[in-house]
Structures are given as structure tokens and as C-alpha cells.
Design goal:
By secondary structure, this protein is an alpha+beta fold. The chain has 3 helices and 10 strands, in the order H-H-E-E-E-E-E-E-E-H-E-E-E. This is Peptidase S26 domain-containing protein.
Amino acid sequence: MNKSRLAGFARKVWHNVHDTNWNAVGKRWGFKGLRVINVVCAVHLFADNVGWIHTVDGPSMEPTMRVSGETVLESRMIKRERLRRGDLVTFISPLDPTRMVCKRLIGLPGDVICVDPTGQLAPSTEHVIIPKGHFWLSGDNAEMSRDSRTYGPVSMALIKGKLIARVWPLKDAEFFRNNFTFIDE
């Protein structure tokens, strides 16, 4: 590029920059930025209070859910006091507060629960009474699950939602049903 073409290009850029109504540009981009912030806030509020879609990762809930490759729908519009034995719940891990995990609700406050029916982590004769404000949670695949057998009753305050349905893969899409069977002696 020769000097005269370069000088012409520089003049053109200078006039465009100089003649631009920067107030209008700032206003236009400011409103676009506010729209983006509004959308981000709306998505955050929806995910925190209504529900979200999560991918499954880990073997603790087999055979109900695969180790990976499934997507589930979580409802956050729940009343913890209305959860029932057999519900699939999401909660903040008592061992790692940065992780969200899913387990089956096995015991309600006041229930007497066998700590470990498999006998792997505790004698199968050991029982515990679930304290007020807590649940007993267990993975469907006991051999591969870190659950209440490891960390005891879980505070209701850690419960975030209830799994409603499997949405992916489409051929396996279904609503989760409560499959709890109560055995009374």
C-alpha cells in the first residue's frame, strides 16, 4: 500500500470515528447489554426456583439411570415436607458442597432405618432413627454409591429438587415413578 492510499484510508477512518454519534452508539450497546443481563438473570432465577435439565454422570443410580448419556428434568418447585419415600431427589453433597448429587429418598424423619442392608459399610443389624429435619438417602446401586450409609442422615436444607423425568435419549424418555415398596413387619 503506498503512502497516499494509506493517508486516504487514515482520513476516512478519522472522519468515520470523528463524525460518529458516540452517544447513540453507547446507548444502543448499553441497551443490548441490559437485555443480555436480563436474560442471564431470568435463566438463573428459573434454574434456581423452577427447574432445570441435568446430565447424568456416575454409576450410583444404576439401573434407574445409566452411568452417562442420559438427561433428566428436575423440578425445584417442591415442598420438602411433601417428599415421599422412593422419590428421586437432588441435593448438595454433604462431602463436597460444590457437587449436586441424586439419590433415592429412603427414610423420613422418625423412621427407623437399617444403616446398611448390604453389610458392606456397617453391620446389617445396625439401625438409626432419622432425626427431625433430615432424610435418609440411598443410591440404587449400593455397591457404587456414596450415600447416607457414608454420611448419615441428610439435612432437608440440602435438598434442592426432585427428578421428574428422563428426557434423553428420546427412545427412553419417561416420567420417573415412585417405586418404593413399604414392608411392614
